[in-house]
Amino acid sequence: MNKPIRRVAIFCMVLILALMVRVNWVQGVQAAAWASNEHNKRNQYDRYAHPRGNIIVGGQPITRSDFVNGLRYKYKRGWNDAEMYAPITGYSSQAFGNSQLESLEDGLLSGSDSRLFFRNTLDMLTGEQRQGGDVVTTIDPKAQKAAFDGLAGKKGAAVAIDPRTGAILALVSAPSYDPGKFAGTGAEDTKAYNDYLKNPDKPMANRALRETYPPGSTFKLVTAAAAFENNVYKNVDDQTQTPNPYILPNTRTELKNESDTEPCENATVKVGMDYSCNTVFGKIGAELGKDKMRTQAEKFGFNDDKVDVPIRATASVFPKGSDQAGTALDSIGQHDTRATPLQMAMVASAIANNGTLMQPYLVAQERASNLEVISNHTEKQYGQAISPATAQKLQQLMESVVQNGTGKKAKIPGLTVGGKTGTAQHGQDNSGLPYAWFVSYAKGADNKMVAVAVVVEDGAAQRNEISGGSLAAPIARSVMEAVLTK
Amino acid sequence: MSTFDSLSTPAAEQRRGPAADAPQAAPTRRNTELAMLAFAVVIPMLAYANVGLAMDGTLPGGMLGYSLGMGALALIAHLVMRRFAPYADPLLLPLATLLNGLGVVMIWRLDKAGGLLVPNYPAATNQLMWSGLGVALFVGVAILLKDHRILQRYTYISMAVSLVLLVAPVFFPSRDEDFGAKIWIRIGSFSIQPGEFAKIILTIFFAGFLMVKRDALALASRRFMGLYLPRGRDLGPIIVIWLLSLLILIFENDLGTSFLFFGLFVVMLYVATERTSWIIFGLVLSIGGATVVASTASHVKIRINSWLDPMAAFQEPPPKGTSEQIGQTLMSLGSGGTTGTGLGQGRSWLIQFAAKSDFILGSFGEELGLTGLMAIFMLYALIVQRGLRTAIAARDPFGKLLAVGLSSAFALQVFVVAGGVTGLIPLTGMTMPFLAQGGSSLLANWALIAVLLKISDTARRPAAEPAAAIPEPNRGGTVS
């Protein structure tokens, strides 16, 4: 019987061999795929198995890693001034994943970034605990606080940019949320998260970057830029041949101004801007035509769906296919024109920076936990939005608006301030309460400057141009002050 | 084919024919066993310390007691071997001890995952108790079973007992977590898996039955289409066994056990009759049966589908009847990679409640990595090959058949379980011998090792000595 026994022995060896081949296949060849499988919760746990790197604002971390020593999760994310910084940091929740910077910079923060590989290996060999790297932001804490306090109790957003570099100095969305309330996996975390989602005020929406609004009269800056660039007018004091009211081309619809008392008939460009005359800029837009208007808008960043700061901003829209009457309305920031607060801040920053639009950015530096720099942001030009000459004229217009026009509330002693108010109608037949806008820039000593865009939703009980000036301008003013005054 | 001899000392164990006498004064090799046992106790001890250090930063509290306990168990088993089976194979006992010890450590480590792995928590203490009882059973068999040939007398009783054992679970309700498999006999909170014991008892029946029938089956055959087929009257019992395994499959939803019995029977038939036609015949029958059942029984279909697409259960909402376990195990294995996370540092509790029992291999794979699993498979391969060596060395046909049966049953079980867990074949409901949590499995496998050792003791005993004689003391053993 020995011969068959030997054969059975070989058969048994083949069985074991098959198992060995199989585990080599699973744990060798396929290992990485299984390890990184989307359903593999280990990656989720690993992310919280060691202290996460921090997001830095003004030299101070605005995030923490709390050691909770749970069975699944060793650490839990915490935030300082959570609501104020939420639109920047986003959340990093054990149950609901990550968003915004916490998501985009997750590789660095969690320490899995390949650029940290050498350090991690060293740490492993020396028995040090692994530690994620830090993300240094461009945010100016004073400006951020000014914007946050200004928007307290309101719905809206504010963005401040340094026009010379594109560095984002403030980015606020209100109402905001506290990511710390659902950073864990407990029942109360789930409840907090769902409450935020269900909240009609949408506290988790990033209004500064991810919401588009009709920009209203603030868009007249773009229209005026198109007029100067296309040589429709040479100077700010040129007369515009504008009737009041202006009949929209090929229609019988009258385009009116806020009130009949305003000196809009045949106004100069400057007066038109001071009083925010719809007739003046509607006519300019209609006569320039949709293509020239769109080209100018796109130079400022409209219709670009890849504005990454690195958080991707929603594309602002200047429509392609409006008729002439529609273009007239598009040109005063109504109809189909839509813009994010970031976009309007970019318009102001290009004007303040003599026409050069810098790519806005939020992350100044990435560094390892030992402060060793991994990468520095290099400033990039987004493009030359307008010629320096046009920029000069627009600066004159904007400064005049603050001095003599609708933007008086933004005046700051000792600083040069330019601005533009806006009140945007929206909703069915403009039934919604209008959005109050203020877009501005300020220049201080030694050429320091800042550009700000503020929008307040449903803020205006009065439907007039004052609302942009009365609601949004003070907020913009306090942000500009925070940046430029010691 | 001298691969199996590579593990024995060349001088003492020259290959010999089945009828050749063993050389006089063959070394008993008990000292080799003792040295190996020391390893088998120390390795799990170190693993235990490793888990404690990794998870708590200190040596576990029960370090001393646990080590002494394991050491004492091993020592008792060893002393009994010295006294009652001095010529037995020196490797089997250490191998079983090592696997059992590693299993207990892994279960203890998973207990430390605490609330993440309810139910059956804590399980390590129970497993330790069952290990003790397993060794006690081992000792009992070694002492009471004077000679394995006594078992021949119980051929037909064995058949009856194993039938009862196998059919019994049909009358007990199955739980949700068994996925419809009825493999348990439950009396109050006490439950046994009769399949584990039936494995041994059925092998005894097969060995007895085939020893009597082998000539009839081998010689009285007619040629049919190039195959030698036996006469109908000899074919009868085989068909009955085949039907029985199919019935188990259908009524108890236990693919693994039925595959095991059928495979076992075919292997033993082949060894007894030395006819290849039996293998072909067996394969045709089993493939036919499996195909019919797979295409009709829904739970078998589910298992096959989850083998083909282990990640299906992760869809939202998960399809009915699917389980995440295989997908989780594969992710465990993949996350462990080549070298593993280290003991105590993996997260195999994600496999959920079966991480300590059916899927314990996933836990080992994650924490010890591919390296560790290869080592564990190697240990199993050694047990199987030492068992088959015993079969080669045995000098009576019943002993040969019994040893082949037990070893190949063991091998088939390892293959079916490990293959199912790693996704090589569809999952079936059995547990990893010695490693997995479960009293029935431990008891049965310790008994299996004991019977194999008795056979090998008889086989290697110098012919001059009568079977039950007490060996002279102080026979010089060589430590290799």
UniProtKB/TrEMBL annotation, chain A:
GO cellular component, one term: plasma membrane
Domain Penicillin binding protein A dimerisation: 52-135
BP GO terms, sorted: cell wall organization
Chain ranges of the Penicillin-binding protein transpeptidase domain: 156-481
Pfam family, one: Transpeptidase
InterPro entries the record matches: Beta-lactam/transpept, Beta-lactam/transpept-like, PBPA_dimer, PCN-bd_Tpept
PANTHER family assigned: PENICILLIN-BINDING PROTEIN 4B, PEPTIDOGLYCAN D,D-TRANSPEPTIDASE
Official protein name in the record: Penicillin-binding protein 2
Organism the protein comes from: Kitasatospora camelliae
TrEMBL record, chain B:
Localisation: Membrane
Keyword Transmembrane belongs to the record: yes
The protein's name: FtsW/RodA/SpoVE family cell cycle protein
Residue ranges of coiled coil: none
One of the protein's GO biological processes: cell division
Membrane-spanning intervals of the chain: 34-55, 61-79, 91-108, 128-145, 154-172, 192-212, 233-251, 257-273, 280-300, 368-389, 401-428, 434-453
Membrane topology: Multi-pass membrane protein
InterPro entries, per the entry: FtsW/RodA
Location of the region described as Disordered in the Swiss-Prot/TrEMBL record: 1-26
Start-end of Polar residues biased regions: 1-11
GO molecular function: lipid-linked peptidoglycan transporter activity
Primary location group: membrane
GO cellular component: cell division site; plasma membrane
Swiss-Prot/TrEMBL keywords: Cell shape, Membrane, Transmembrane, Transmembrane helix
Pfam families for this protein: FTSW_RODA_SPOVE
